[in-house]
């Protein structure tokens, strides 16, 4: 539920030193029955979120890939597959058109001023 609320907030991407961060990312795969994340969220097939091993649960991030930009949040801290720095839910992977493990760009989101 928290991931759905993130899309309606007045947030914008924050300027990171040197611009966007790069990371190898891929889908965490299909959701199992009653799959709960390390952040305590229950995943569904419609969940939109990202797994990052260091960034705090609930942190808002903007992901960019192939001209698509999506506001999301950290929903888990336990990566499923080795060789990745980020993992996204299957629904988010479809939106970003991620296939396998690919390089994406990301930055922290901040509240828009004004």
Descriptive overview:
By secondary structure, the chain is mostly beta strands. It has one domain (2-111): RlpA-like domain (Barwin-like endoglucanases). Helix content is 11%, strand content 35%. The chain has a 6-stranded mixed barrel with strand order 2-6-3-5-4-7. Strand 4 (60-65) and strand 5 (68-76) form a beta hairpin. The longest helix is centred in the C-terminal third of the chain and has 7 residues, at 90-96. The radius of gyration is 13 Å and the shape is globular. It starts with a helix and ends with a strand. Mean pLDDT is 87; it is low at 1-8.
In short:
With 114 residues, the chain is mainly beta. Helix content is 11%, strand content 35%.
Question: What is the averaged pLDDT score?
Answer: 87
Would you give the CATH topology? Barwin-like endoglucanases
- Strand percentage, roughly? 35-45%
Proportion in helices:
10-25%
- For CATH, the homologous superfamily is named as RlpA-like domain
- Taking the alpha carbons of the first and last residues, their distance comes to 27 Å
In CATH, the architecture is Beta Barrel
Q: Could you name the ranges where pLDDT drops below 50 across 5 or more consecutive residues?
A: 1-8
- Radius of gyration using CA atoms only: 13 Å
The assigned structural class equals mainly beta
Query: In CATH, what is the class?
Result: Mainly Beta
Can you write the helix and strand succession as a string?
HEEEEEEHE
Number of strands: 7
Number of self-contained structural domains: 1
Largest sheet: 6 strands, mixed, barrel
């Amino acid at each position: 539920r928290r991931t759905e609320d993130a899309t309606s907030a007045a947030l914008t991407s924050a300027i990171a030193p040197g611009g966007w961060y790069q990371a190898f990312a891929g889908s965490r795969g299909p959701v199992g029955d009653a799959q709960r994340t390390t952040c305590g969220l229950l995943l569904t097939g419609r969940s939109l979120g990202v797994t990052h091993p260091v960034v705090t649960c609930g942190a808002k991030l903007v992901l960019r890939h192939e001209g698509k930009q999506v506001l999301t949040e950290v929903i888990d801290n336990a990566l499923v597959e080795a060789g990745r720095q980020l993992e996204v839910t299957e629904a988010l992977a479809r939106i970003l058109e991620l296939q396998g493990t690919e390089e994406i760009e990301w930055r922290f989101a901040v509240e828009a001023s004004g």
